[in-house]
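This follows on from our talk about sequence and fold. Go ahead and set the record down below:
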Amino acid sequence: KTVEDFELFIGKDEVGVVGFFEKETDLKGEFLKAADKLREKVRFGVSTAAAVLEKQKLKDGIVLFRAKNLQSKFEDNSVTYSGSASKADIESWIDKTFHGLVGHRTSENKADFKAPYVVAYYAVDYVKNPKGTNYWRNRILKVAREFSKDFSFAVSAKDEFQHELNEHGFDYVPTDKPLILARDAGNKKFIMKDDFSVENFEKFLNDLKNGKLEPYLKSEPIPDDNSGPVKVAVAKNFDEIITDNGKDTLIEFYAPWCGHCKKLTPIWDELGEKMKNEDVEIVKMDASNNDVPGPYEVRGFPTLYWAAKDSKSSPVRYEGGRELNDFVKYIAKSATSELKGYDRKGNPKKTEL
């Protein structure tokens, strides 16, 4: 209602989105609908007060104000909406604009940051050390401006995301400087190996953008002997053992500590024996110690997939029973070519004497 109220609202350490309206308009109606939908996540305000409208020099518009603790000389402290009077467009604009050039990524909002993205991990702490936190964030912002069309950027507290550091082979961050980790559009992982500096960061982003970097793969060593009836896949030989093997393939993604996986082991070994003369590969992979490539998704153990030899880019999750006969019947029915030893129903074929 007053300029003081308005300044108090936009002076907080969180994003605020304000609608400024002299009268009822289509934009105001759509803004209020968007605000109603997003109010759990976003702070909204609306003003029709002449003094507030005069201060903002806006009579029918929407402005997103950056969190005070994230304001920087490297980007504008506010962004004015320039789209149509559409709830969907307003929501989309808020979504794209909300975190700014370099967002503060936390465990609560991490889903907002989608690949391709670049994250700087260090001692981010806006409560105890906002100045030190922004010291590094400003250096990241300085470079991020030039790459904002290529990647989204964020800073994250290294202690809060230790599990992500582990996924990239780091037990800890060995320096006070930011550790830079990235994912490209295909969700491949990349590490900036040089110590952080503005120059090194810029070079890393250029190389990442131009496809000059080798992705990081968490992988066990390739087995010395892989001649058994059940093939062992690791991240480094995944394409050879599964994608490019020219065979229908049934894969078990397991974890060594998983009880259900241990119970499945003798059945899986027996299945491998039964299929060793067929045009079918039975494979297992320790998904807790190897990166699993897309399109496979492993959220629990064991996770089983069928990858037909001509459809390796679209494998199918196996949801059937886990007894030996269940697997045999499934393979017999799903195999690209009919099995030598079983009919399509999974019955053993009679051999001529």
Summary: The longest strand covers residues 248-254. The chain has three domains: 3-98, 102-210, 231-334.
